[in-house]
Amino acid sequence: MTTHKLLLLPGDGIGPEVMAEVKRLIDWLNAQGIAKFETETGLVGGCSYDADKVAITDKTVALAKAADAIILGAVGGPKWDPVPFDVRPEAGLLRLRKDLELFANLRPAICYPALADSSSLKREIVEGLDLMIVRELTGGVYFGEPKEITDLGNGQKRAVDTQVYETYEIERIARVAFELARKRRNKVTSMEKRNVMKSGLLWNEVVTRVHANEYKDVELEHQLADSGGMQLVRRPKQFDVIVTDNLFGDVLSDIAAMLTGSLGMLPSASLGAVDAKTGKRSALYEPVHGSAPDIAGKGLANPVAMLTSFGMALRYSFDMGKLADSIDKAIANVLDQGIRTGDIKSEGSKVVSTTQMGEAILKEIQKLHA
Ligand code: IPM
Ligand code: MN
Q1: Which CATH class is domain 111-260?
Q2: Which CATH number fits domain 1-103+272-370: 3.40.630.30, 3.50.50.60, 2.60.120.10, 3.40.718.10?
């Protein structure tokens, strides 16, 4: 059996609490001989700043590069509001994305039937929802230069962020979206703001060309990103794969998360290109929910997104789709039993802690493997 090297980066806030539930699952998989994972743990975000005055150390980045996959909890919190911009917790995550060239961020939004009533939208709008947001992750306004605040000397300042995309960046993310669509319902919706942004114009042009040259069999549709956001809450089931830039993807994926009942439900995978020689690709898996400092340390966090993020690692890095399916099934079963963390509670449900939720899900996985 192949040994897979995982780097666990629990991070800040609820990160360590939800990561503990993944660790519980990994330990069980190892003990049962179902898989062989070797784990190392490192610091990223505010906890790294506290220890080393940087959001991530070179040593941890080296560990990340050497790992077969990185499993990350969350970074950030008000505690680090005063720290300098370039060492703020988020900088650690952004460096990992950039240094490992994790350009493709996959954010599936699936509404479990049992949770349709937890969404802020009506049941019939979200029930059975299954869409995938493909967010470009290493370009755009997140990394574009110049990025600065200049003092104009007259009591005024000027802040600049730069939205920039080159053809190859749009081509490669478009291909990821089209390839995924082929394995799903064969439809891609590309979102940009070509009506105001030059980068939107190029985005539209390149996606259209890649489609015409390589993916004619896939249905392609273009929506302006603002109207796309509206459509996401109006009729989300019209979407299969949505492909969009870094900033729009950040916003639209938070919206999509809420469709599923709670931000605590949405996992993500950040993938690099497949290495032609080794067939391997860098990959980082993290929940979309962030560090939730308001509930950190209280055992209230929902571990589902963290567990399904690990499920995505099984699927996309280790070719263990069946095992990932059984995690999904176990979660659905637990939700059907009315076992819920506070964020997804509904009438008659049993509200449990992070640990109890993790244990309940593991118990269901064990049943499925008995
Ligand atoms: C996300 C987060 C990050 C982002 C932050 C923490 C830098 O919101 O992964 O969606 O903006 O990309
Ligand atoms: Mn975000």
Answers
A1: alpha beta
A2: 3.40.718.10
